Amino acid sequence: MIIAEILSYPFLLRALAVGLLVSVSASLLGVSLVLRRFSMIGDGLSHVGFGALGIAAFFSLSPMAVTIPVVVASAFLLLHLSSSRKLGGDSAIALLSSASLAIGVIAVSVKGVNTDLNAFLFGSILSVSKSDGWISLIVSVITLFSYIVFYHQIYVTTFDASFAKATGIKTERYTALLSLMTALVIVVGMRILGSLLISSLIIFPAAIAMKIGKTYLSVSVISALEAVVAFILGFIASYAFSLPTGASIVAVHTVFFILAMAGKALRTRLMTLQTKNSVY
Where are its TM segments located (predicted)? Predict the structure, then answer.
């Protein structure tokens, strides 16, 4: 059986554990980011990560040692720029993404693309090392713990920052925490889907959950469950049919999103028909 085969290999088991942890962390953060119309931060920070990887390759430095501080610093820079009245969040992400891509392309063209850089571009979850696994575990545990502990503050800040401030909640502090957690998850998530697809781990689960759930809590739970199921199915499909792991996972998310849209449209249609029948 395929599942038994996957569980029999230590490196596949490690990849599965890392992927599940990162997927759940990204899906929970994605709910708040999507609701605040800041969902493309994942895409922007992944491009920043590509630029950092290009610099690391150019100077022959450790990819993670360069990427983590650069992406975290960029997350706070995006936070500062998006809060400026002269520059919106979308513009800030576009500017930083373009600049980072340019730097990465220049660095790569001068140095040449190596295997490690390709793994971060397109994802290589099956080659996750023990050190990567521990880093992912630590980041995911910190993210999940912070999300649970500060759930109320994140919830209030997401829906009504003005009300949160009036009640004494330091909204800037929790927005900064959200940006920090997102940056860390993006860095470790690049190992799974690569910098080109990592934003899907943030956007898809939240978008799907919002088609089904009615409350913030239900959307958060559904988002996490969808992320787990999509990752497992994509992982199994990748192993069974020798497909790229990252692309397989995104393909499953896409199917779920289409089904969620179709289900919502069907429910809306049925409610409309019921309303018409009750009138007559």
Answer: 12-35, 47-80, 92-113, 134-154, 174-204, 216-241, 247-266
**What does pTM read for this prediction?**
0.87
Residue 79: CB atoms within 10 Å: 19
Distance in angstroms between the alpha carbons of the first and the last residue of the chain:
56
- Comparing 152 with 162, the larger pLDDT belongs to 152
Tell me how far apart the alpha carbons of residues 190 and 141 are, in angstroms, rounded to a whole number.
17
Contact 121, 195 (CB under 8 A): yes
Distance CA 199, CA 186 (A): 8
Both tokens of 22, joined, read: 């990162």
Q: Angle 117-69-172 (CA atoms, 0-180°, nearest 5)?
A: 130
For 232-251, the pLDDT digits (tens) are 999 999 888 888 888 899 99
